[in-house]
Amino acid sequence: MRADATQTRAPAAPPPPGRPPALTREQVLVAAMEIIDRDGVEALTMRRLGQALDRNPMGIYRHAADKDALLDGVVEHIFSELVVSREPGRDAESVDRDGDDDGDWETALRHTAHAFRRIALAHPHAVPLLVTRSVTGPLALRPLGTLRPLEELLEVFIGAGFDPHGALHATRLFTGFLYGHIQDELQQQVPDPDETDDLLRLGLHRLPITRFPRLRSLASVLATYDGAAELDEGLDIVIAGLRSQLLT
To answer: What's the CA gap between 65 and 61, in Å, rounded?
Structure first.
């Protein structure tokens, strides 16, 4: 029998899905940073990054020639969160909220130091990268994103009245202090946080008392370590020294 011409036909199968959109550099760096944040730098490989992005790892090489370039990109991505000086056009409400003054170089340094600390504590596994990859190699060959904060710090110091050489010295002193502080803070780990005795909680009981009497005696002080307060105390010393240089 001849089929009715008016019979409804079955819907056509949908067309096969097209190719996924091309990866962006931002997507690659964010995924790489997530792997580092979760499992550490050693866990980051091109293969694992490709799995995280659900892509062929070969496509990642369009954004990073090798793992070193990928790590440089991650460092730049993290440093992009750090702004040393207030951007032009910032509204008065945000100035009042943050309590800083664009003309106060000391306040700018304190604001920058605490901003760096927040960023570093948010990415503790990446801190060694921030320290090593932003200070190694010839200056002009370092990732440009790591040089921007240095340029902004130089601008802060020169604007405060330091000559160019003094501004460079001040920038090196300030950044060296920041790197040292955050590495020290991350080392203040508590092996047994549920232990009530400070000596046992910090594992200091393992140290021979005849060789490390001072460290053992400081157990209660070490147990109450306050990273933000320690940072401020260190900044008081650093800024006082810089201020004396500026006034001479």
So the answer is: 5
Q: Residue 129's closest CA among 80, 75, 82?
A: 75
- The residue assigned the tokens 């009042």 is 96
Q: Are 158 and 164 in contact (CB under 8 A)?
A: yes
Rounded to 5°, the CA angle 72-74-77 comes to 110
pLDDT at 91: 38
Distance between CA 53 and CA 210 in Å, rounded? 54
Q: What would the DSSP string read from start to end of 52-78? A: HHTS-GGGGGGT-SSHHHHHHHHHHHH
Q: Which residue has the tokens 């790489």?
A: 32
Gap between the Cα atoms of 28 and 55, Å rounded = 11
- Would you give the DSSP letter of residue 189? -
Residue 188, C-beta contacts closer than 8 angstroms, at least 6 positions apart: 222, 225, 227
Q: Which of 48-62, 74-88, 204-218 shows the lowest per-residue confidence on average (mean pLDDT)?
A: 74-88
The whole-angstrom separation of Cα 87 and Cα 102 is 9
For residue 157, the SS3 value is helix
Alpha helices in 20-126 (DSSP H): 25-39, 46-53, 67-79, 92-98, 105-122
CA 244 from centre of chain: 30
Using a cut of 0.85, tell me whether the model's pTM lies above it: no
User: Token digits for 37?
Assistant: 């944040």
pLDDT digits (tens, 9 = 90+) for 33-61: 999 999 999 999 999 999 999 988 888 88
Q: What are the pLDDT digits (tens) for 173-192?
A: 999 999 999 998 888 766 66
